[in-house]
Amino acid sequence: MTQKEPITVAITGAAGNIAYSLIYRICTGELFGNDQTLNLNLIDIEPALPILEGLIMELEDSNFHLINKILFTIDPFEGFRDADYAILLGAFPRNKNQTRKDLLGKNSPIFKIQGKALSLVAKRTVKVVVVGNPVNTNALVTAKYAENIPKENIVALTRLDMNRSLSQLSRKLTKNVSNIKNVFTWGNHSASQFVDLSNGYLLENSKKTPLTELVDEEWISGEFQKINQMRGKEVLLKRGKSSAGSAANAVLDCLKSWIYGTETYVSMGVISDNNPYNVPENLIFSFPCTCKNGTWKIAKDLKPNEFCKKMIKKNVDELLEERRIAFELLKD
Amino acid sequence: MTQKEPITVAITGAAGNIAYSLIYRICTGELFGNDQTLNLNLIDIEPALPILEGLIMELEDSNFHLINKILFTIDPFEGFRDADYAILLGAFPRNKNQTRKDLLGKNSPIFKIQGKALSLVAKRTVKVVVVGNPVNTNALVTAKYAENIPKENIVALTRLDMNRSLSQLSRKLTKNVSNIKNVFTWGNHSASQFVDLSNGYLLENSKKTPLTELVDEEWISGEFQKINQMRGKEVLLKRGKSSAGSAANAVLDCLKSWIYGTETYVSMGVISDNNPYNVPENLIFSFPCTCKNGTWKIAKDLKPNEFCKKMIKKNVDELLEERRIAFELLKD
User: Fold this and answer.
1) B325 Cα to chain A: minimum distance (Å)
2) Quick check: B165 pLDDT over 80?
3) Could you give the number of structural domains in chain A?
4) What number is the ipTM of this complex?
5) Last residue of a domain, one of A156, A188, A207
6) Which of A67, A118, B82, B325 is the residue whose CA sits 20 to 30 A from A238?
7) For an interface test with B, which of A38, A58, A157, A183 has the most B Cβ atoms less than 10 Å from its Cβ?
């Protein structure tokens, strides 16, 4: 097979656990194809550099034939150079005693610099997936300062929430997950997230059965939402470490949808401009999206019920407040 | 694509770091194909069960369409049931104050039980890859007690040693690793391991150049061997954790070679019966192997030089001593 000219994939937080799960899967060709060579630009903070060096030794020892070049750096202006893809995993984690405001205060400046760096040195067509929390506002800050990059190119990961909802439904219905369609989350990747089943259906033998006919409303608005909200904590409790493999998997799912297209709705945190759901402009908000030819579109034809509208409003309010805090902090 | 009936893949030490890297890659279909559904039997010790539960939650949340069923257990007689493949990652790690004998004392009884379990409940055609150290002797103990399983079905992983040698040569020669052929290790997976370059060549534009013409003998017998021996420690020092992703990758490489065949030599730790290199019978020894139709063969036509013969002898002596200790300990 003739190999394609290398593309450049930049990853921040590259010494972390999500990266450790993600990078190997990218190197096998699972995401970009078995003929697509790669320049990997691995970015992390200074104290993590030895870990990055160890990772690079292991990648060398894996002899991936698709790797053209690996670079590691603490400088986003070097790491994002000519990037075709940027996956922003790195962020300060939330401590027990920190408020959401503290967290925004720690992370907004990082994403401001990364936005500026992307703007200055990445390809204008770069596709950016933000994963570090608080992800919606981190992505918004990135978009604000990445002046030369279209806002459409910057997406916040909300796919793990969707994947978790699907997996829970699959167990509840004892049906294969690939038969469950059009389940997605609205709004913020936070405890306020709202999983919308009202458009979802089970596809069996070409027959579509609405999910609302298969699970009762009490379960949907109660246990189902709660399990989704608590899933991350539950995994952390069991493993003693936060979700890494499933987060990396969700990043891959998100990028596969974005690059190769979708047939049904998927959750993506995208810029809210021109949405038909009364979400104010200039927020990064999780919407049901469809993708085609490398671009996403917000699904336009849905009719959220009153409860859903209320939950969208709640998420809007939360994100407006996050934006206010972040932009206030970043004022020059 | 129509999916094939599930095969059963059993993994011990499934809560560990190598497993965490390995299992996701197996679930994508990278090893057994994108149409091969899987029963995953995850085995670990009691204290690790919560970690396993957390891993299973994450696998659920990754919605791999190839997973048919996941089972987790501490009992190898349950975990190996109907196994088509068994990957034995679990072993007591070596503490600073432990001798090799102490380590054999800890691990031999585990692999004895696992051998018995494989014999009793796995498919007779099961392919077993042993990874936990001391890997050669652990594999030999497994083979001894797996009376119903042909000894040819049990392989000790020495592929990571080969992969590390290849990656080092690739950097030394600044050549793509896929152009470097027939480099392999003899003997024990230990500090005594010997990487043999005397049959290796660089393939460029259909021209084969012997590696011995490209790198000088002093480097081969000095720095090259030393870097290979120290590579694992070096990674541990940098990462603060031992090699996991590259070890998982080597397991996949080993199984791909075994299942799908090879064109050149690869390192596999296999039963020494009927080898032409004066290695006594009934040892698990790393030989240059070729694979075809799911079976391996020791390369027969090599002419080890005097130094290589000396190194083979050194490895034989070490493995005879390990075998003596292990079998002595296991006497009923």
Assistant:
1) 32
2) yes
3) 2
4) 0.97
5) A156
6) B82
7) A58
